[in-house]
Write a sequence for this structure.
């Protein structure tokens, strides 16, 4: 039975009068998968409801933050209580140090941190710090990795930039892009050559330790350790962008899973429990370069906002208290849904490569192993689009791009996994 989307379609038309593409973030426009996007009205647990009353199992979870599911009662209550005391002060509040302390417990590499309002701000600020600390101008990022939309980071970026097949972005002066070296992910030799060619000129290497923004791509055996060794040797700061992996792969993120300690870490998404909150942090000697202590300026009206602090505290406190059950449960369910759907594709004769790290994963519509952006790009994006539309029709809302990671929440159940596998069986035969 086809789902009606008439109210969403009307809402889309209205939104397009005021918002470019009708959206506040490009990937939400469903341009890569076609059709009008459903308009979300309510979420509860693992489910979303759209403007036409259709219910969906949610596998993008606001692009990562909703690890505990939608409208998780302790988070809702924390926000409600904080809001009753005002929504913002622009003055210091106790909750900022409370949440910061929790972050330092989760990430031993972080001695000090600063809260900001988005992953973009956090990554941008971490780079400014790295340049100030090293006195160097160049930065290294990897093709297909996405670290937000700061000018210097839109070079061969992932996520929406990859989704729309953009080389970068208009409006970024060549002089800015010039200082960004974009290398293939999982290629140690490329890093060695760049460090050689730009000896003493590179301030930092910024990497998603497990990539989500070209779709999910894991680091090759020893890759992160090689980045750590090479940066140590060359006086280059290693920055882990754990906006997506932080508190997702483990309470201590990818650096807990892989045992590699970066100099700086960028966090976001789960950190704010769905409210605008991100952070960057690391060694004290680097972080203390920030104003008001040092010469690196960085600021934000709503940084450390009391509602975001309350939502983050409720989320991280729950994750920390229940880490021994939540993460194994996420692992079990994610393995079941990824393996189940992949098996259905195989029996339907469809080439699919599944990459998964904990509860973040991507089904690539290619027969090749996917280890970097070049191999991810061999995916058949129109087959992905057909699959996405068919799954949506069957009540399963996947991220609307081949070059994004899907996520499970602690609210998903094995019954939801079974429903997803059945929906995929139908979708592969659509
Ligand atoms: P924000 O500025 O969107 O809060 O964070 C940027 C960012 C930084 N680092 C990583 C690893 C990220 O994944 C992101 C943002 N992720 C995308 C989805 N892959 C956000 C979704 C969107 O752009 O609408």
């Amino acid at each position: 039975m086809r789902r009606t989307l008439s109210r969403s379609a009307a809402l889309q038309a209205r939104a397009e009068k005021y918002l470019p593409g009708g959206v506040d973030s490009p990937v939400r426009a469903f341009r890569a998968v076609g059709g009008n996007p459903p308009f979300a009205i309510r979420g509860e647990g693992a489910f979303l409801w759209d403007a036409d009353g259709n219910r969906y199992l949610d596998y993008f979870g606001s692009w990562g933050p909703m690890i505990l599911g939608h409208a998780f009662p302790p988070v809702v209550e924390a926000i409600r209580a904080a809001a009753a005391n005002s929504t913002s002060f622009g003055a210091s509040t106790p909750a900022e140090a409370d949440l910061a302390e929790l972050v330092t417990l989760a990430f031993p590499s972080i001695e000090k941190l600063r809260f900001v309002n988005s992953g973009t701000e956090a990554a941008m600020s971490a780079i400014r710090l790295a340049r100030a600390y090293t006195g160097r101008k160049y930065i290294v990022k990897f093709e297909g990795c996405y670290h937000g939309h700061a000018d210097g980071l839109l070079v061969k970026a992932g996520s929406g930039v990859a989704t729309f097949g953009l080389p970068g972005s208009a409006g970024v002066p060549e002089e800015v892009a010039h200082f960004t070296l974009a290398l293939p992910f999982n290629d140690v030799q490329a890093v060695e050559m760049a460090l050689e060619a730009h000896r003493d000129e590179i301030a930092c290497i910024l990497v998603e330790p497990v990539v989500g923004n070209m779709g999910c791509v894991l680091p090759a055996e020893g890759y992160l350790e090689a980045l750590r060794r090479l940066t140590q040797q060359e006086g280059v700061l290693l920055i882990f962008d754990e906006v997506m992996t932080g508190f997702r792969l483990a309470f201590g993120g990818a650096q807990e899973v892989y045992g590699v300690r970066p100099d700086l870490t960028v966090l976001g998404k789960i950190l704010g429990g769905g409210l605008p909150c991100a952070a960057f942090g690391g060694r004290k000697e680097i972080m203390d370069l920030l104003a008001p202590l040092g010469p690196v300026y960085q600021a934000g009206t709503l940084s450390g906002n009391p509602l975001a602090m309350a939502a983050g505290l409720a989320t991280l406190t729950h994750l920390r208290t229940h880490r021994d059950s939540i993460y194994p449960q996420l692992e079990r369910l994610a393995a079941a849904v990824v393996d189940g759907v992949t098996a259905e594709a195989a029996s339907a004769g469809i080439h699919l490569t599944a990459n998964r790290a904990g509860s973040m994963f991507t089904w690539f519509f290619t027969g090749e192993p996917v280890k970097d952006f070049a191999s991810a790009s061999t995916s058949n994006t129109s087959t992905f689009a057909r699959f996405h539309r068919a799954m949506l029709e069957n009540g399963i809302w996947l991220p609307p791009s081949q070059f994004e990671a899907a996520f499970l929440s602690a609210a998903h159940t094995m019954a939801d996994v079974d429903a997803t596998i059945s929906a995929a069986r139908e979708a592969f035969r659509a």
About this structure: The chain has a mean pLDDT of 96.
